[in-house]
């Protein structure tokens, strides 16, 4: 899956800022790829981009209309569907991270075929894949892993990718979830892959290479979350990571959506991920910990990072507040 850029971010008629988090993520990490926004009402949440019509966007060279919102159930509202059809008829590709497939909108696939454009359902993956082999391949890989779901694995991977490239160490971000795919323009949504093929999908996503220094692979789920540990294990085996970065949210009382499951001990999380990773790369090691410290003050966060550094003998940071330079330095010190 490779989505042509630049983008026009479609916000529909949503008024809840949280509903536009996908579009915000794209804008934050790939501002040069976002030409403008398309809103259906004046009350629709704004990203402070130029409000463009489809015709305006076409004249400015936009290639893909991206549905930048999420809603309960992941259904594309019927009131939006004519806009999508108009866009296809004007030659735009369409990309969506919704659960509902674009191809299931009546008449949209036929229009796309007629106008020779593509419909990208990034939450779905239908291309045949091989099973993983665990065979060693060229290149170095870093995988972000988590103590739970939604603890900052994508943000951390993107921050590391940006910092490495800015430091003169060529790296490529490898997206494994729908938002990451829309940010990068390519990737495989591994939670849409049949379980037997997850490790093979990651091997295909990050094949052997000698053109750059690191592939930074976006993690999914957590070995410690009973709902999603399977996809996490497949990622660990398929990535064959040389380096791992643990992501954790301070103050989370229990595993997300499972109040009967307390948050695990961090030492156990580190050990479990290392054991799993070393099946396909016996030299895998942790190079840092990234914390979400939004629940405490910045001063308190600095203290916690220092305490964790002493406890776990690893660079520790909040990538939003403090950046990731200390982890980058660890990679450089070990010969990145």
Automatic annotation (TrEMBL):
Q: Which InterPro entries match?
A: DgcN-like, DgcN-like_C, DgcN-like_N, P-loop_NTPase
Start and end of every D-glutamate N-acetyltransferase-like N-terminal domain?
A: 49-124
Q: What is an example of a Pfam family matching this protein?
A: DUF1611_N
Please report the stretch or stretches of sequence annotated as the D-glutamate N-acetyltransferase-like C-terminal domain.
Answer: 131-327
Record-linked Gene3D superfamilies: NAD(P)-binding Rossmann-like Domain, P-loop containing nucleotide triphosphate hydrolases
State the name under which the record lists this protein. DUF1611 domain-containing protein
């Amino acid at each position: 899956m490779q989505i042509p850029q630049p983008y026009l971010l479609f916000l529909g008629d949503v008024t809840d800022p949280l509903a536009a988090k996908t579009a915000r993520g794209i804008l934050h990490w790939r501002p040069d790829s976002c030409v403008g926004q398309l809103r259906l009402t004046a009350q629709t949440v704004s990203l402070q981009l130029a409000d463009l019509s489809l015709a305006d966007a076409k004249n400015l060279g936009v290639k893909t209309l991206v549905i930048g919102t999420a809603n309960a159930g992941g259904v594309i509202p019927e009131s939006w569907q004519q806009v999508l059809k108009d866009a296809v008829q004007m030659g735009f590709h369409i990309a969506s991270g919704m659960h509902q497939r674009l191809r299931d909108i009546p008449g949209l696939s036929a229009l796309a075929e007629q106008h020779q454009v593509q419909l990208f359902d990034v939450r779905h993956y239908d291309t045949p894949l091989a099973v993983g082999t665990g065979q060693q391949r060229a290149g170095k890989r870093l995988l972000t892993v988590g103590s739970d779901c939604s603890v900052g694995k994508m943000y951390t991977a993107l921050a590391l990718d940006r910092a490495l490239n800015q430091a003169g160490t060529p790296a490529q971000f490898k997206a494994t979830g729908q938002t990451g795919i829309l940010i990068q323009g390519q990737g495989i949504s591994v939670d849409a892959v049949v379980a037997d093929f997850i490790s093979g999908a990651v091997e295909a996503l990050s094949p052997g290479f000698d053109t750059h220094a690191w592939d930074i692979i976006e993690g999914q789920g957590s070995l410690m979350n009973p709902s999603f540990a399977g996809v996490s294990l497949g990622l660990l085996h398929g990535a064959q990571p040389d380096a791992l970065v643990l992501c954790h949210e301070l103050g989370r009382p229990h595993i997300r959506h499972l109040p009967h499951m307390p948050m695990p001990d961090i030492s156990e999380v580190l050990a479990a991920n290392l054991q799993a990773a070393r099946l396909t790369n016996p030299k895998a090691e942790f190079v840092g910990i990234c914390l979400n410290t939004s629940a405490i003050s910045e001063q308190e966060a600095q203290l916690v990072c220092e305490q964790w550094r002493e406890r776990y003998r690893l660079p520790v940071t909040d990538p939003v507040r403090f950046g990731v330079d200390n982890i980058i330095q660890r990679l450089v010190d070990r010969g990145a």
